[in-house]
């Protein structure tokens, strides 16, 4: 039976990393933050007292040194650092790391293979394929990839879910009834911790967990009920989002990804919610959350209720 006690978190200065670190610590793991030497993020949002190592992500020797003594590596690097994970994987294997969790999260790239958004995420797909190859060649090394859907609470707070509380408006895709795979940031952290607490059951698997599957209209109805307001709702066609994304892509506009993401998640009939059969919530010991409670917390934080 594999035992995981020490965890290095690669990256973690962004939105998701601190939530993962917090939940790993809460679960009893010994955590070390590993940030890129020369990073413009001057102060990683880690808990006080957490050991943090700054290393050259492009140096095999530097990565191997910082991974020595670590049972697992969890990568939360941003898009520019995704391809560099292959070097980190090689260094982890050389250091005797037992488990590697890549910076996957978000979109289910296995479902997205061959789609437009999947083509934009080929680097992520390549990393999971590389992990599978390396695990097969090195039996003491294992991996787990985790898809979590929308970062739901973060998306609400940052306007990416299409609801503007100040203007009392909302934008839905197609009918707004398509349920989307969604996870709160802390839930993602608990899922990562759950994977590492169940290393044998989660070895060499692509897993999906969620807080809930939420339709845009469900969220709008809750906002109106809890806040006592009426939102003016506008609908955009998923076909128009696809066309807009293609035009932006041709022009080199990175905002194309947002259009394709909304199409992938919310287009009528897409069926990209996390089904009960696919869900690993029970496997990793993470209960589903309440959509009502999440929306309530957001509205309170926003000072609406």
Task: Give a nutshell description of this structure.
By secondary structure, the chain is α/β, with parallel strands linked by helices. It has helices at residues 17-26, 60-67, 85-94, 109-112, 116-120, 122-137, 152-157, 185-197, 199-202, 216-227, 238-250, 256-266, 291-301; strands at residues 6-10, 30-36, 52-55, 72-75, 99-101, 142-147, 150-151, 163-164, 169-173, 179-183, 205-208, 212-215, 232-236. This is NmrA-like domain-containing protein.
Q: Can you walk through the features of this model?
A:
With 305 residues, the chain is α/β, with parallel strands linked by helices. A 7-stranded parallel sheet has the order 3-2-1-4-5-6-11, with helices on both faces. Helix 2 packs across helix 3. Strand 8 and strand 9 form a beta hairpin. The protein has helices at 17-26, 60-67, 85-94, 109-112, 116-120, 122-137, 152-157, 185-197, 199-202, 216-227, 238-250, 256-266, 291-301; strands spanning 6-10, 30-36, 52-55, 72-75, 99-101, 142-147, 150-151, 163-164, 169-173, 179-183, 205-208, 212-215, 232-236. It starts with 5 loop residues before the first strand and ends with a helix. The protein is globular, with a radius of gyration of 20 Å. Keywords: NADP, Oxidoreductase. It holds the Pfam family NmrA. One of its GO terms (molecular function) is oxidoreductase activity. Residues 5-241 form the NmrA-like domain.
């Amino acid at each position: 039976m594999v035992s995981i006690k020490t965890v290095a978190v690669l990256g973690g200065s962004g939105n998701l990393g601190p939530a993962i670190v917090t939940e790993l610590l809460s679960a009893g793991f010994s955590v070390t933050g590993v940030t890129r030497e020369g990073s413009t993020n001057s102060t990683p949002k880690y808990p006080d007292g957490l050991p943090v190592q700054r290393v050259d992500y492009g140096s095999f020797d530097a990565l191997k040194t910082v991974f020595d003594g670590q049972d697992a590596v969890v990568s939360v690097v941003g898009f520019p650092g995704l391809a560099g994970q292959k070097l980190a994987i090689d260094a982890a294997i050389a250091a005797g790391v037992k488990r590697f969790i890549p910076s996957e999260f978000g979109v289910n790239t296995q479902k997205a293979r061959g789609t437009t958004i999947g083509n934009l995420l080929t680097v992520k797909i390549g990393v999971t394929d590389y992990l599978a190859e390396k695990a097969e060649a090195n039996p003491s090394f294992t991996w787990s990839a985790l898809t979590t859907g929308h970062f739901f609470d973060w998306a609400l707070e940052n306007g990416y879910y299409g609801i503007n509380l100040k203007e009392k408006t909302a934008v839905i895709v197609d009918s707004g009834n398509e349920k989307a795979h969604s996870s709160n940031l802390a839930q993602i952290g608990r899922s990562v911790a759950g994977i590492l607490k169940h290393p044998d059951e989660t070895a060499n698997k692509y897993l999906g967990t969620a807080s809930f599957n939420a339709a845009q209209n469900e969220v709008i109805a809750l906002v109106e009920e809890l806040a006592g307001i009426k939102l003016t709702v506008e609908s955009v066609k998923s076909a128009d989002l696809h066309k807009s994304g293609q035009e932006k892509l041709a022009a080199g506009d990175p905002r194309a990804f947002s259009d394709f993401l909304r199409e992938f998640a919310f287009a009528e009939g897409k069926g990209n919610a996390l089904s009960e059969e696919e869900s690993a919530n029970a496997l990793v010991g993470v209960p589903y959350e309440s959509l009502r409670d999440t929306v309530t917390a957001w509205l309170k934080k926003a000072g609406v209720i």
